[in-house]
Design brief:
Blueprint: H1 13-16, H2 19-33, E1 40-46, H3 54-63, E2 67-72, H4 82-90, E3 96-99, H5 102-105, H6 109-121, E4 125-128, H7 139-172, H8 185-196, H9 201-208, H10 212-216
Parallel strand pairs: 1-2, 1-3, 3-4
Helix pairs in contact: 6-7
């Protein structure tokens, strides 16, 4: 008996299914197809505009980061770092925060642990390019990073202490701190006499076309 060719009579399976029985399955399949794709989000930081982000930016781009967030601010605290806050808020499950160098992210042990916790709480991962074999999903990896952060924080405090001591010694030896004077020696003598005579710093500053802070330094 010849079997009739019936393929053309098939209807879409959705019209043949009892939706009430398979509703849960259909939702599961839809959520699976819309799963968030993994993104590599880079972060770099420099302390001053005299430094250059090019090296960090190049390393992050080479790793595959299409989005790179950058701050120009001290790394001693998390405060006042809008781009770091932005990238942490941007993280979604499956994303990866990529740092070119860990001490560019922070030089504080507690701040470092806070960053790692916020990344993991978002369901994301973290990659530090100058520690390529470090697995921050394990307690051992996070412990090592905390130790490194503590060492970086100690070095930062040592630099601050040495800088302060150097300034103290220089001032003891009569070295004037701050930017160089904008006034000549003759102008400084004239301004000093006018200050001694009771004239205001603002009036003297206007006459010499400088800021009143420049005149105030002569006191």
């Amino acid at each position: 008996m010849e079997v009739p060719y019936a393929v053309s009579q098939f209807k879409p399976c959705e019209t043949l299914l009892d939706h009430s029985r398979f509703n849960g399955l259909r939702v599961s399949l839809m959520s699976h197809t819309k799963r968030h794709a993994k993104r590599l989000l880079g972060y770099g930081r420099i302390s001053t505009t005299a430094q250059d982000l090019a090296r960090q930016r190049q390393a992050l781009k080479a790793y595959g980061c299409r989005l790179v967030f950058e701050d120009t601010v001290s790394g001693k605290t998390l405060a006042g770092r809008p781009q770091l806050s932005r990238v942490l808020d941007e993280l979604r499950p499956g994303d990866c925060l990529v740092l070119a160098e860990w001490d560019r992210a922070t030089r504080s042990m507690w701040d470092g642990l806070h960053i790692v916790k916020q990344v993991l709480d978002a369901g994301a991962t973290i990659k530090v390019l100058d520690f390529p074999s470090l697995d921050l999903t394990t307690p051992e990896g996070r412990g090592f990073l905390a130790m490194f952060s503590a060492m970086a924080e100690r070095e930062r405090l040592r630099i601050v202490a040495r800088t302060r001591e150097g300034r103290r010694i220089a001032m003891t030896n009569g070295v004037k701190m701050g930017p160089p004077f904008k006034l000549t020696e003759h102008q400084r003598k004239l301004a000093t006499k006018r200050l001694a005579a009771g004239e205001s710093t603002r009036q003297i500053a206007r006459d010499f076309n400088v800021s009143h802070n420049t005149i105030a330094r002569l006191r």
